[in-house]
Amino acid sequence: MLRPPASTLAGTHERALRAFRARFGAEPRWAAAAPGRVNIIGEHTDYNGGFVLPMAIDRYTVAVAGPGTERRIRLVSANTGGEDEFDAAAPIIRGGQGRANYVRGVMAGFQRLGAEIPGLDLLIDSDVPIGSGLSSSAALEVAVATLLEAVTGHALDPVDKALLCQRAEHEFAGVPCGIMDQFASALGREGHLLLLDCRSQQLEHVPMIDPAVSVMIAHSGVRRELAAGEFALRRGRCEEAADALGVELLRDATLERLEAAKARLPDETFRRARHVVTEDARTTEAVRMIQQGRWSAVGELMYGSHASLRDDFEVSCPELDALVEICRGLGEAGGVYGSRLTGGGFGGCTVSLVATEAVDAVGKTLRRTYREQIGLGAVVFVSRPAAGAAILPMERLPMEQP
Ligand code: ADP
Ligand code: MG
Q1: Which pLDDT tens digit goes with each residue over 25-48?
Q2: Is 133 helix (H, G, I), strand (E, B) or coil?
Q3: Which is nearest to 27 in space by CA: 36, 17, 35?
Q4: Which terminus of the chain has fewer CB atoms gathered within 10 Å of its CB, N or C?
Q5: Are 139 and 36 a contacting pair, CB within 8 Å?
């Protein structure tokens, strides 16, 4: 089914409460939720100090907890079956492989702020696809941080919460991510995209409420295995180009300046930088077009972004290209304004802008044609720009009352 039920969050919340009772044999006392995210445009610009334009999706990770014994943390994921147990009386440290380091890192962040973490039984449940580039990792971190706000009474500014979670991902999970994922999960607002300036960390909520236009996400079914090493290589090229142009970050380079330096730069470095510089321009332009409801123009910018990621930055793959080309083939007559790979690339998802009335037909064609061409099943769904993290009420849900 393409349209998620109106209350996916309520459903996940309820499932998490049930799973908690079944696992720990007690009533939970606290609950919190945080969404995954999709980036509409602005890819590989974050670590160059540029702009990104994500939105929170209406798929959430829910964390529920009750008081534990002593100062032990007992943690279980209903999604993976993974479990972890550690002591909250001492400073929490990174555990080995298979340990819940995203959660440990967030708890350590609270300890650093002077918050005392009590013993907790904690259960995670989520309907954010895991490892798909929709940032289940940020959803997990931000859900746990929001839960800890409720547990410890130590409320954080959402920006500080996002930064605490980013640090957890850097230091405990070993992933040198930018700020986009945690900001989108912590600061998402219903009916809005987030324009994020990754240099100043300034944020603007951009309304996107036209009911005639939908955001469609298609998962290629390809895991992003190449991503880590290739990512480091591209980061290096970007730094090289910035050095050559005499700017601190490529955000400060212009296309004219880059073109003027072309002869001095290795071709690959030039093309990597050209992607970043043009992508920044496309992102700020996309915001202007969205504000005017000019969806064809937004769609063209998305196709432009994909071509640049494919040809200049070289982070696409045949599967993502196929998904985008199927959309382009449908065209506006078939209900598609634009499409591009979203996230780091080398697999994961595409994001497309689709006329709402055509959503079912486009989804069907996308799945069928993708299977014919690639031989894989694509998971396709739509999401409205959703609300960010929140503490959830703990009164019993209506259907569970005797
Ligand atoms: P993405 O953030 O795009 O989904 P990542 O590789 O960054 O992909 O993060 C996925 C990892 O986050 C998983 O391998 C797992 O360690 C952790 N994770 C995220 N959500 C959950 C969950 N609900 N339960 C257990 N682990 C989770
Ligand atoms: Mg992640």
Answers
A1: 999 999 999 999 999 999 999 999
A2: coil
A3: 17
A4: C
A5: yes
